[in-house]
């Protein structure tokens, strides 16, 4: 009986060790899949009513508080219908398969869900509309990772579900993390997308100039993958 009990304990501990090993092995894959699900849920839950409400939320714009994406932020964004992430629109770049909710402010929960506004006063379709997002080293299809594959001339679409704003990429370059001029407002109506480059040492900066706008009907949204 004593030998049988020891065997059960050994099997139990071996199983626990195997589970921990698998979790460590697939840690990034699991986390990335949850982020992808957060993106999908964020897009599906967008309504004109929720956007209007979230625009009045106080966003966080303290860049020093931004952290690398972790389990805590990913799980919190997934809880209770993502009530801690403030979606105010959507971003689409069909040429690289990039479809994300736009979040109000740079909270770590927002950054684990979509692209985030970088100034409290920015207005979609007017002046410079800068957005920041995480670059995922182990997955080139989620959050702002696809930006690396964009090309000059491709189109970027932003929407608040009232209108769709169409931009054409006219700048793509790697810049210093200190290039704060990218965030400043401009006389020109442009969008600026920023994410990490070179392992976080530099930044990708993609800009597009506004070339048109249209009403955000179901058909028009579907045509841009939203």
UniProtKB/TrEMBL annotation:
Keyword annotations of the record: Hydrolase, Membrane, Plasmid, Protease, Thiol protease, Transmembrane, Transmembrane helix
Active-site residues annotated for this sequence: 134, 196
CDD domains: Sortase_A (cd06165)
Coiled-coil stretches noted in the UniProt entry, renumbered to this chain: none
GO molecular function, one term: cysteine-type peptidase activity
UniProt entry tagged with the keyword Transmembrane helix: yes
Parts of the chain that traverse the membrane: 7-26
Superkingdom of origin: Bacteria
Keyword Protease: yes
BP-aspect Gene Ontology terms: proteolysis
Name listed for the protein in its UniProt record: Class A sortase
Source organism of this protein record: Lactobacillus iners
């Amino acid at each position: 009986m004593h030998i049988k009990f020891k065997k059960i304990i050994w099997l139990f501990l071996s199983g626990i060790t195997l589970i921990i090993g698998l979790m460590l092995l697939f840690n990034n894959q699991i986390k990335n899949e949850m982020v992808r699900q957060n993106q999908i849920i964020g897009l599906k839950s967008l309504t004109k009513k929720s956007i209007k409400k979230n625009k009045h939320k106080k966003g966080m714009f303290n860049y020093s508080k931004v952290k690398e994406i972790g389990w805590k932020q990913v799980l919190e964004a997934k809880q209770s219908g993502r009530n801690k992430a403030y979606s105010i629109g959507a971003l689409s770049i069909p040429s690289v398969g990039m479809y994300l909710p736009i979040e109000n402010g740079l909270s770590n929960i927002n950054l684990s869900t979509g692209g985030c506004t970088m100034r409290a006063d920015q207005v979609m379709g007017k002046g410079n509309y800068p957005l920041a997002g995480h670059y995922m080293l182990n997955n080139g299809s989620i959050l702002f990772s696809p930006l690396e594959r964009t090309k000059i001339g491709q189109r970027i679409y932003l929407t608040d579900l009232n209108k769709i704003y169409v931009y054409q990429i006219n700048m793509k370059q790697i810049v210093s993390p200190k290039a704060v001029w990218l965030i400043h407002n401009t006389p020109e109506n442009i969008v600026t997308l920023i994410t990490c480059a070179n392992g976080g040492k530099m930044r990708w900066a993609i800009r597009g100039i506004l070339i048109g706008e249209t009403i955000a009907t179901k058909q028009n949204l579907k045509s841009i993958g939203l």
